[in-house]
Design goal:
Length: 198
């Protein structure tokens, strides 16, 4: 089961990893844990190299987060709120969620951009309030790149270690399939049952 998943990642190569990681941070179809973890398995097999994989994944993460940063920076609160209110069902978030993330950013400053790279739920969301606060672009990119690099390195190493355990690759393949299905079901459930708090 794992073979075809690893082969698919290998087929796209480093550019495929970059694209998937950027897409995952704009609209998460596949969690980064799976992308970089499977990349780590490819590293263990010798079909990919650690440093190019880390660079591709980190650039992809940074670009994906930069999209949300630019949305916040260019739109501002006044123009963004009607957009989130109108499309909240499909974004599966409300303006209240944006305000919570904004308060978190204001309280902890730029370091929250770095730290949130390790949070499965908030790592993309925090880019929006950073943009709304008009954080300097270079600083945002540097903190995002650094945090994403640390997180991606851990994921790659985790996948590489997993590949060395007998039978673990087969289990990992099953886990990947289950997580993909659960992610799709979770998103559809959120859309169907969406009810604005207001």
């Amino acid at each position: 089961m794992t073979d075809w998943i690893v082969n698919l990642i290998e087929l796209g190569g480093y550019w495929g990893i970059l694209f998937l990681m950027a897409l995952e941070n704009i609209f998460p179809p596949i969690p980064s844990e799976l992308i970089m973890g499977v990349g780590g398995i490819a590293v263990a097999r010798g079909t990919m190299s650690f440093w190019p994989l880390l660079l591709a994944g980190t650039i992809g993460s940074t670009l994906g987060n930069y999209v949300w940063f630019l949305v916040g920076d260019r739109f501002g609160y006044r123009r963004l709120q009607p957009f989130v209110t109108r499309w909240g069902r499909w974004l599966t978030m409300e303006w209240e969620d944006v305000e919570k993330a904004s308060r978190l950013f204001r309280r902890h400053g730029q370091w929250v951009v770095f730290v949130m790279r390790f949070s499965p739920l908030l790592r993309t969301m925090i880019s929006l309030p950073a943009g709304l606060a008009h954080m300097k672009h270079g600083r945002f990119l540097a903190f995002t790149f650094a945090g994403a690099a640390v997180w991606n390195a851990l994921l790659i190493e985790g996948g590489r270690q997993l590949a060395g355990i007998t039978g673990a690759e087969r289990i990992a393949g099953d886990v990947v399939i289950v997580l993909l299905v659960l992610t799709a079901v979770w998103y559809l459930w959120r859309v169907v049952t969406w009810k604005p708090r207001g």
